[in-house]
Amino acid sequence: MKDVNVGICGLGTVGGGTFNVLTRNAALIAGRAGCNIRIARVASRRNRDDLELGDIPFSTDIFDVVQDPDVDVVVELIGGYDTAKELVMSAIRHGKHVVTANKALIAVHGNEIFDAAEKAGVVVAYEAGVAGGIPVIKAVREGLAANRIDTVAGIINGTGNFILTEMRAGREFSEVLKEAQDLGYAEADPTFDVEGIDAAHKLTILASSGIGVPLQFEKAYTEGIAGVTPYDIAHAEQLGYRVKHLGIARRREEGIELRVHPTLVPKAHLIAQVDGVLNAVMVDGDAVGQTMYYGPGAGDEATASAVIADIVDVARAVATASDQRVPYLGFRPEAMEDLPVLSMEDIQSAYYLRIQALDRPGVLAKIASILSEHGINIESIMQKESEFKDGRIPVIILTHTVQERQMNLAIADMESLGDIDGKVIRIRAENFN
Ligand SMILES: NC(=O)c1ccc[n+]([C@@H]2O[C@H](COP(=O)([O-])OP(=O)(O)OC[C@H]3O[C@@H](n4cnc5c(N)ncnc54)[C@H](O)[C@@H]3O)[C@@H](O)[C@H]2O)c1
Ligand SMILES: N[C@@H](CCO)C(=O)O
Ligand code: NA
Hints:
Rossmann fold; binds L-homoserine; elongated; binds nicotinamide-adenine-dinucleotide; single chain; Dihydrodipicolinate Reductase, domain 2; Alpha-Beta Plaits; 14 helices; six-stranded parallel β-sheet; eleven-stranded mixed β-sheet; 3 domains; binds sodium ion; alpha/beta; 433 residues
């Protein structure tokens, strides 16, 4: 049995997990890959005492991996945009295949990287970058190749889902974020998780590989979880909904919706049941119908599982002519559709609204009349006893689906009423029918 030699760059959470699983399951993986996956070199800022490198060469300079003539596959697990891009482009120039867990890199520089890789005839694989250990890229690029996919949506940031889940149980935001960092789930800069940037990176990649549009991260709408309050989580629950942080890519006739934001999901839907660091991606194909992919979205060995699956694919691809391989984004570049990304005003969604009404007669009628003027139908409405002891009465409304432009106008009209105090709180809602 021959060897395929890999060089691991970055010995952090994912690098350590990859090293351990490749070592522990070496014989099993060789049996599947048809060759031995040999770790030929590792490089990272610092070595780790807990990993048994034995006589595997270690260096602090990751570019040593690219220069090493022994290395067939460069495994990029350092993260970030700039050095990672330099490393990957250099690997491609050296004719080496690349496996990466870096969704930021692929979402932002993927078009350029795949173009260079195509010319060099090498593979660049990124399964670990999207929904961690869940083989969702494999599913959309290969398993669903027969389908026209119109919607890809789901929970694609483990840290954010972990925080929302724990907040539902009454824990405090910053304490839970700290725990997610200690567990190795969070990005080096955790604002990427909290502000939805990481989810937007992944959604960008899913929209391309599922729906078949070019990577266009800069056009994704991104809203994080920091504004979600325990109060709204509890009231969404009373309405039969759970607040989840979702990425949604949806093809419509006029273009494609590409958005990341907190979303109410019916409690009975599978996505609402996905808690903690788990991720779930729902893919709707015209032939197959709705499918769901569920599992750990982050963590050392869970992510390593996806990294190594890509290494095995590369090992098999080495024997295949480069023009017969699975296209980088699942579609040949000329088969990508240049659908415009719709502005948020043009998206369609249902909405949860929380309005602080002053305790005056007729206020509810005024709110209902504004919604009706803008063609917005009410699904349910709750008027709460004032819990604020200041005369303000929370009115909670769930609407039917409407264009966001109409909702913006209705909210502006409501906020200009003398009977409303402050801003109307709005969380989008999805039924996934
Ligand atoms: N942690 C997860 O659960 C997870 C899951 C999926 C994808 N990812 C992605 O995997 C990548 C790695 O994440 P991680 O959590 O393992 O990060 P990490 O911070 O734990 O590990 C990164 C390692 O790379 C090293 N490194 C960084 N820059 C370097 C440089 N210029 N030269 C030498 N060494 C360098 C660091 O010292 C560190 O050991 C990121 O792109 C991340 O987004 C992480
Ligand atoms: N920080 C990311 C890691 C997995 O991509 C998350 O929490 O989902
Ligand atoms: Na994955």
